[in-house]
Amino acid sequence: MFVGIDHGTTAMRFAGGGRLFKIPRAEAVSFSLSDLDSLTQGEKIEGFAITYSMGDNFSDITSIHNLKNRGLISQEGAGEHTGGGTRVFDVVKESRIPAIAIPGLHRGSPTDPRFKVYSHQASPEKIGLAYEVAARLGPDFIVSDISSNTVSLLIRDGVIIGGFDACVFAPGWVHGALDLDAIRAIDAGVITANDAFLRAGVRDNLDEPIQMSTLAMFAAMECASLRILAPDVPIALCGSRAALVSGEISSLLGCDVLILDEWTAANGLSRIATDVFSKNINNILGIPVRL
After folding, report:
1. What does the pLDDT look like over 97-109, one tens digit per residue?
2. What is the CATH number of the domain that holds 82?
3. Which of 51, 63, 185, 270 has a 20 to 30 Å separation from 178 between CA atoms?
């Protein structure tokens, strides 16, 4: 079996052989391969596709052993650091089981250069997410992952064109872009930029009655703006908040949307591992595979 590993904001999610396993990131600091026994159920793991943090120090899908600094420019950055993802990465690397690492989307990625005005477009698990959606919707679509973050991508002709990361546009439940108040607080030394990012979502900034409506509006705006480059492509929503906001997003966009769940990225990563290791596919959504 081939296992995909989604390094999510709150949990590590594993998928393979049609089965699923999740462990909170804080608990993953003591992870061992035996923790996957409920997932493997005696089957041999033939390969992993793993994601780790921002994945911004490499651009191709590659062997985990080819990475420097676990594929990161720096451990510092937007997000919460618990050590769980690092533990999973190191256990997989040391296991001697073949493993590929998936890069994030950044200025070194083969996306539309206009999106590169921003240094980062999406973290690595979004590639797994998009690969799973492509298996359902075909080569042209927009996918918006709505959970702690909101991240949206455009795929056209089977290639990732570009996207909006959580730091840039739509807020998520927890995280979001830094607004004027946040910039002033950072400059005044009241808060760090990362702490501001961790408090920029709708949860901490709006009253409960309009939180979900706000998530829906901004996610719909991201999808609508990406449709400028690909009019009328189908839209998929993923993530822990997708089902809660899908009706309003569908109404705002005037179209039906495909609703998938929090396991979409892990399932897509398992699909990538299967295709790379057993079918020798050398390109995933426009991203080269170089082993």
Report:
1. 999 999 999 999 9
2. 3.30.420.40
3. 51
